[in-house]
Amino acid sequence: MNKPMRRMAVVAGAGAAAFGMAVAPASAVPSTVWTVTPSPANYTAPNSGNIVMTAGIPMTCTTSTASGSMQSATGNPAAIASIASINFGTPTQPCTSVLGNVTTVATLPWTIYATDYNASTGGGVTTGYVGNIVAKVTAGTCSFTVSGKASGTYTNSTGILAVNSVSGELSVSAPSGCGSVVTTATKPIFKGNYAVKVTGTTTIPKVVGSNPP
Q1: Is 115 within a domain?
Q2: From first to last of its 213 residues, what are the pLDDT tens digits of the chain?
Q3: 42, part of any domain
Q4: Which residues pair with 54 in a beta bridge?
Q5: What one-character-per-residue DSSP string does 31-81 give?
Q6: 20 to 30 A from 118, CA-CA: which of 111, 157, 159, 208?
Q7: Phi-psi bin for 187: left (phi > 0), alpha (psi -120 to 50), beta?
Q8: Domain containing 178: what range?
């Protein structure tokens, strides 16, 4: 290779490396060892802000609480926590929609999976998803079942589990009384923040991912 060609190769390689760092600040190798502190432990996670599910129409909950257990784990994805209980709304603060009040009955447990870790932001941010989601939703005379997963992140500094699903992760089955508003072609979106603490304490759990040699 002549000198000009070598110089172009070096410049191109450096540019590609810089671009890779810009778009992928998380670990280059996905984490496979997940250290949860404390572990094992039970947690409680009330909502922080409204919880919204959009399935043809938006459905909003001002009150929601999840609880379950968490533990260190190995693998990718790794099951670092389970959701053993979750409610959406209460009798005095029901979830609402233009079709009427909304009730959601979850088939549990759901599972929280970790897939990547970025130590450089928020005291450590874990990327993953809530899996094994199954729930029957009733809004007025319309009812349907939602199933699938919902992407999210967990931030160590705040203890916020931010659920932020994308279109196609959740699906609808068995719609009844919904007309054309909710059909099997509907792609629900689930968004909301939950503030995680060790049950009965003010302790925010920490999750750290690593990829040992």
Answers
A1: yes
A2: 444 333 333 333 433 333 232 333 444 578 999 999 999 999 999 999 999 999 999 999 999 999 999 999 999 999 999 999 999 999 999 999 999 999 999 999 999 999 999 999 878 999 999 999 999 999 999 999 999 999 999 999 999 999 999 999 999 999 999 999 999 999 999 999 999 999 999 999 999 999 987
A3: yes
A4: 58, 189
A5: --EEEEESSSEEEEEEBSS-EEEEESEEEEES-EEEEEEE--EESSSEEEE
A6: 111
A7: beta
A8: 27-210
Q: Could you tell me the two tokens for 161? A: 């589990």
Sequence-ordered strand ranges (E) for the chain: 33-37, 41-46, 51-55, 57-61, 64-70, 73-74, 78-88, 102-106, 110-118, 125-139, 142-155, 160-164, 170-176, 189-195, 197-198, 206-210
Number of domains into which the chain is organized: 1
Structure tokens at 116: 């990547």
What is the residue type of 136? Answer: K
How far is the C-alpha of 148 from the C-alpha of 199, rounded, in Å? 27
